Protein 1
Amino acid sequence: MEERKMICISCPIGCHLTVTEENGEYVVEGNQCKRGEVYGKKEMTDPTRVVPTTVKIRGARLRRLPVKTHIPLSKPLIFEAMKLINMVEVEAPVKVGDIVIENILDTGVNIVATRSMKRVE
Ligand code: SF4
């Protein structure tokens, strides 16, 4: 039997969850709603996170462009994904939602811009 304590990050309430695994079945306690149960089970089987970060940008007023994964990325892949993200340099102009890296690590997850940046000469 495995037991883990965690905080649900699905909403600002932050319920303290206890997830117990026995014979492949997961029981979540401490959640105030169904989302907490889903979150607790996913944390035990396939934890994922939206990754907010920045990439280099040329030709804009700022030197870094804020980006994020368009959907949550498997947690064990975040370190490898960050190595690729850190190698990228984009060219202004960029619009919010533009894909900076498509299908990173063959996961189906795109890295997208989270703000627009105009070109400055
Ligand atoms: S269990 Fe429900 S109420 Fe509690 S933090 Fe998660 S989403 Fe919010």
Protein 2
Amino acid sequence: MTTSNYLAELTWADVADILEREHIVLLPLGSAEAHGPHAPLSTDTIITEAMIRRALPEIEKAGAFPMVLPNVNYGITEYAGAFPGTISLQPETLEAIIYDIGNSLIKYGFKRMFIVNNHFEPEHVQGIYSAAQKISEQGLPVGYLDLTRKKRAALLTAEFKSGDCHAGSYETSIVLAARPGLVKEELLQKMGPLEVSLVSKMSQGFKDFKDIGMEQAYCGFPAAASAEEGNTTLKLLSEMLTDAVSEFLKTSTADKPGAYHRF
Ligand SMILES: [Zn+2]
């Protein structure tokens, strides 16, 4: 019988076997956040799931059995708080959830945890770093692929790099590739390009999509989205994830408590 890569599909005895092998635990983070009138609230979750799914065979080839934890499908989503359905955690809640998951892994002797996230609200990313730091201090090395870093963003689409990227072409394309039935495609052609300088507005202290000019909870150019672009991006994302995990497997062997690994 083939062993599933997903913890939720395994028995405790399967997990005990995995602990005996070279392994890497992946923690998928999602969100319940408004993504325009056309894309689902689970857009970030769908991106995380799809990039992990595509990376699994390659990670296994890199020499470690990848075990995927159940998702954390809530994040810090204050900017989209004006739009119904957006469910936000307080920073300490997000940190506590990730920290508690890490501590459970430590209890059973797991060797490494890698966090995969596609929701980039600054407070959310900060919460991930805080939790990663605390878990690393407990002795479990934690890796995190931060797609907001310049060297990562440089490899992604022009819209992603521009920062005007919320439910635009970048994210909508990935949903079209991974879960096509969930995009309201009939709306796309009516959605003109919207430039709001999202990232610089965030650094100026704006805290609400509506104040930033995102009246429908999107910016960028969703009408330009295609499944083809989505597949190209997912290929890049899964390659970045595989490379980061491979590097983490090498660099975290002589780990010092207190140092999380940022990729
Ligand atoms: Zn998103």
Protein 3
Amino acid sequence: MAKKAKVPQYDRASEDVGNIVSLEHVNLLVPDQQLATAFYVSTLGLTRDPYMMTGVDNMWVNNGRSQLHLPTRGTQVLRGHTGLVVDHYDLLAQRLKAAQDVLKDTKFSYKIRNDRIDVTCPWGNRFRLYPADSRFAPMALGMPYVAFDVPRGKAAAIGRFYSEILGAPAQIGKFDDAPAALVCAGAGQRLIFRETRAKVAPYDGHHIQVYVADFSGPHGQLDARGLITEESDQHQYRFQTIIDPANGEPVFEIEHEVRSLRHPLYARPLVNRNPAQRIMTYQPGQDAVMVG
Ligand SMILES: [Fe+2]
């Protein structure tokens, strides 16, 4: 009798994404586009979007399939930090060192750690830059997560909000050794809400943008609770307050731009450059980085 072939066992649930299919951008006002260019483009090595927002009043900066939006009209600081997997991580430290002069007299700073570099922008926004490795594989370039600092005891309620109202699977786990809601925000992307004992700064209006497959379901739930803050257009609405669905209590503020998959910008191909290109070591044909 033929031996029965062994059926491989796979964790099918680990492939589930949930309703948020992409965490596309973080929007932070900046007061000075020259300094923003020196930091985000020349120092971090990200790419200014060549097609959209090409004036001096705003700048879109690409990293993989995600962006930072940087309108030039003030200062906003995210209450937490943004994770970025960058191209040619090995060259980052020397650019950070070189930036100390042009970014002096600002809040710019950096710390090289074992397996990442922590960088603060000229106005206090914090980033953790990672090489492409097993932590975020297969992402080779992109924004694997945005991590928010939230008051103690709020992670579970935030997890309930995303799973019950947004349809985004959320686990309660740990991040930086503290309890955190880990919310799936796309394949290989997360929104992280990490509890902190420190005082959480007042909310200053920065925002994040997500694409959702079920657009009307969360809208109905948010609208029923009076949480929609803007009916932007056919393809987009906004909300700002995260509540505990168990009792309606507000637990955290972060404006979400919620877009449907029919939004014209959905899955827009983003230009990404190779930050290693230099005149003295120029390699023909290697200007672009392809994002899979
Ligand atoms: Fe936005």
